[in-house]
Amino acid sequence: MHEPGDRLLLKRGHEVLGHALVTHRTMWLGPTVVSAAGLQALATAPVLQRQGFGTLLLRRAERHMIDEGHSLGLLATTLPEFFARFGWVACGRRNEYGACVCKILSVLAAKGLYPKIRKPLDIRPLRRMEISRVAEIYRLNVWQRRGPLERSEAYWQWLVNRGAYHEFLVAIDRRGMRRSASGDAPIVGYAVVRGDRIVELFTLPDHGSAGVQLLSRVCGEAIERGTDTLRIDLAPRHPLTRLLKSAGALKLDGGYQRRETLMAKVLCPEQMIERLGGDLASRATAAELPLPLDFGLAVGNQKYRLSIDSDQSDTANGQASLPRPASVATGSIGRSYLRLDPGQLTRLLLSQFDWNSASDGEPSTRLARQAATALFPYRTLWRPVFDDLPSVGR
């Protein structure tokens, strides 16, 4: 979502020579939600390229993100080399498969799931008044994952109304109407389809069969269109992953566009660390790190000191309470610290650090490395594609 002031223009008189768009978002990082800005459609006129105007637009967009209170920037690009020069790093991934439609249906038939389904659901297009039910299914599936965007009701309305898909199908359990006090047909799953691609598919946790029936429906329509191969975006560890692998599905690289790279940049390190404070304190406790803990980050000329204090035991019940969320101060790092460049800092705070690589970070002490690996363990960062798709012509 964005406001008119989020569209940045480079103009000469009335002529537009460059453009960039900033979007306002919030992203799940496990149990924490962080404020993130998306950068889209950064481009300059061909006659101005390689003259520094793209750099000017990028710097202005980053300043706008910071002024709007965002601690993290996100983008997807086919030109990662340009953005890497300014501290953006490849970070996060899609989770896309490519499979033969006939092979998918063959596997479903062998399992007795196609063409005759024992307990069929009603599958039809989404209706506007049902958006809140779809939003709840999404929330149940992505809550506390790392990378998906938090979608408010207003965001969902925008996402549906902008038309970045050809079909938005929902699976209805008619039998549930008898159990529903309101008499409304319960939506137990949905699939968003764009061309020969399922860009998002989720079901209620206890309705896995809805995913199979939605997949069958899309495959059947693909055959009618003469489509041989289907591209399918799934969340990591999605219940349909094993079925697709049985059908010989291949993991695809890239994203919506070929060779697309997902990139990120921490814009306000102090704000980002403060936001992650509760999660960092929980990790310190789980790893049994000695508290209170001081841990420094030396990033170029910038110094950040992370502190996690231990609380006194609760004398009322004799139990030790959780540590206080981490706080951060600037200007000092202490004895135990990790030396990083700005790109490494982004990967560290997003838990994308490769601790097996000798070139990733320089710990000052053994305790510094122990603390760093416990506070920032590697975690999968998955970004759904549906949020980033452009509109399609109707």
Task: Summarize the structure in short.
The chain is of the alpha+beta class.
Characterise the protein shown here.
The strands form three sheets. Strands 1, 2, 3, 4, 5, 8 and 14 form a seven-stranded mixed beta sheet that branches. Strand 11 (197-203), helix 6 (208-225) and strand 12 form a beta-alpha-beta unit. 28% of the residues lie in helices and 29% in strands. It has eleven helices and 19 strands. Residues 312-316 have low confidence and may be disordered. Helix 3 (101-110) crosses helix 6 (208-225). With 394 residues, it is an alpha+beta fold. It is globular. The protein folds into three domains: 4-90 and 260-266, 3-Layer(aba) Sandwich (Aminopeptidase), CATH 3.40.630; 96-253, Aminopeptidase; 269-375, SCP2 sterol-binding domain (Nonspecific Lipid-transfer Protein, Chain A, 2-Layer Sandwich), CATH 3.30.1050. The chain starts with 6 loop residues before the first strand and ends in a 19-residue tail after the last helix.
Shape annotation: globular
Q: Roughly how much helix do the residues carry, as a percent range?
A: 25-40%
* DSSP, total strands: 19
Report Rg. 24 Å
Proportion of strand residues: 25-35%
Distance between the termini: 21 Å
What is the H/E order? EEEHEHEEHEHEHEEEHEHEEHHEEEEHEH
The overall pLDDT average reads: 88
Query: What class, by secondary structure content?
Result: alpha+beta
Describe the main β-sheet briefly: 7 strands, mixed
Q: CATH class of the largest domain, please?
A: Alpha Beta
